[in-house]
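$ run holo --ligand "flavin-adenine dinucleotide" --emit tokens
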Amino acid sequence: MKQEEINFGKSEQFNLTMIPGSFARRMRKNIIWQFFRFMVINIKMLIVVSKSH
Amino acid sequence: MARLIIMGGGVSGHTTATFAKKWLGDEHEVVVVTPNSQWNWIPSNIWVGVGQMEKKDVVFPLAPIYKKAGIDFRQALATEIHPNGKADDDTPYIVISSTEEGKEGQTEELSYDYLVNATGPKLNFDATPGLGNGSGGLSGNTVSVCTADHAVHASEELKEIFAKAKAGERQKILVGTGHGMCTCQGAAFEYIFNIEHEARKANVRDMLDIKWISNESFLGDFGMGGLHMKVGGYAVSSKLFAESLYAERDVQWIIGAHTSKVEEGKIEYELLDGTMHEETFDFAMLIPPFGGVGLKAYDKDGSDMTDTLFAPNGFMKVDAKYDAGAYENWKASDWPVTYQNPTFDNIFAAGIAFAPPHLISKPMTSPNGTPINPTPPRTGMPSGIIGKAVAHSVCDMIKKGKDVHLHEASMADMGAACVASAGKGLFDGSAAAMTVYPVVPDFEKYPGTGRDTNYTFGEIGLAGHWIKHILHHMFLYKAKLKPGWTLIPE
Ligand SMILES: Cc1cc2nc3c(=O)[nH]c(=O)nc-3n(C[C@H](O)[C@H](O)[C@H](O)COP(=O)(O)OP(=O)(O)OC[C@H]3O[C@@H](n4cnc5c(N)ncnc54)[C@H](O)[C@@H]3O)c2cc1C
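-- output --
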């Protein structure tokens, strides 16, 4: 069984939501993709900060 | 020469004091009254609470920093405000009580021209029987991560739980809110996922049942009525985002809960449907409800005028609309803009110390009449921004006269960036990074979700984790007033 499917079976609460699959989980740790996201999140946060001052 | 006194040297008060001193120079006096000798970067207490940082990593002594900046530092508690002065002298003043070693309890009167209340929250453990020890502190039944010392203690207790789990004893962990009127769900959220992460690293995850309990009516409310964010091309509710994370990490949840009693290894709680339940635990971290710190105000003749300055919850009244009425009538414009006290134009409140006009989340009450809803969060970024705006206003009033246009910083016009990080290693951690804009939803400006979905977003990954690390170092650097500190945003 795929890892994400194990938890669906553990409780009704878990069964009614979404759980990331292996691709989504891998991308969270992929250094190149995460470096790109780091830049994007930083830019967005800076815009939020500048809109707030 | 004018004298500005700032009561409270936390995130907000420290920001006000340091900017005010920079802008006022030596011509005017800036005094900080705060009870601790050390400044604490509170968000990183979470890492102390799981043993990934030591107390020394999240605190530093205030006296040398204030000395260098030319700020008069009084290690004391402010206890009384006399905004009209005394019978024979109109000069307003406050009374402070020393907390310095060897001088404990010694009182002093300090006159002021301008006063900023940035005393943050009283951690009201005693609101829930068994959560507090009856004299304002934490009972031994649960732990807390609200102060650096609490977090050190939490980490020691957690270590014992992990040791028992390693020895084959199944352990139950409960994390969340210790009352129906708590805020700061974000801190508990971050703590529970740090415990979960550390448990995996220590190979004891299989021996732990980890459960969340909170007063939110849905998971992901965070005291802001939830938020909608862009994830994978969808605009989704934070409910789905949060539930997904809990399910992925095998963390069960109880929501809509008012913790009514805490005992050793057991809590009692009431749900929004009015039913009563019990939950057992081996280790619990429950956030207490917040209140004002209990400052009193007196008139010239000594009569109590605390009600004039403070709301019943002990937070200071500012320029908010406190009579907005029912939920249906609430507007973004109810939220304060200048943080000036409506009765005394030389008094301001910044950060958690100001009285919000009402909740942000929808008010909820159980059939037994128990209110069970998160109170509004005032996280680090808004507290810092408000502190700076108040410093700006006071400096302008001192330099240009009382009629100047005051600086504005409404939470309905301000965003917040929150990073809930699990783990501390650079490559094995992960974080839920979120920004929300604005903090208080504005349904007139953004019909539908109340917020700008271009700037309200959340995602999980290493990137957020790196940002959390950077924030930790950046804010400590800024708070220590190292070169270029003014360039680092709040
Ligand atoms: C565990 C935890 C984690 C958190 N994580 C995050 C996060 O990741 N991101 C985020 O944005 N926010 C976070 N927060 C919230 C953030 O810490 C607060 O928003 C912020 O500290 C509020 O600033 P403040 O100045 O209003 O209050 P505080 O920082 O609490 O400062 C108040 C100060 O006033 C002093 N004081 C109290 N009584 C008196 C008195 N009578 N006289 C004089 N001084 C007094 C106190 O000692 C304290 O120094 C977290 C909070 C907690 C508890």
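-- notes --
Chain B touches chain A at residues 240, 243-244, 246-248, 250, 252-253, 381-382, 385, 388, 409, 413-417, 427, 430, 433, 435, 437, 455, 457, 459-464, 466-467, 489-490 (CB under 8 Å).
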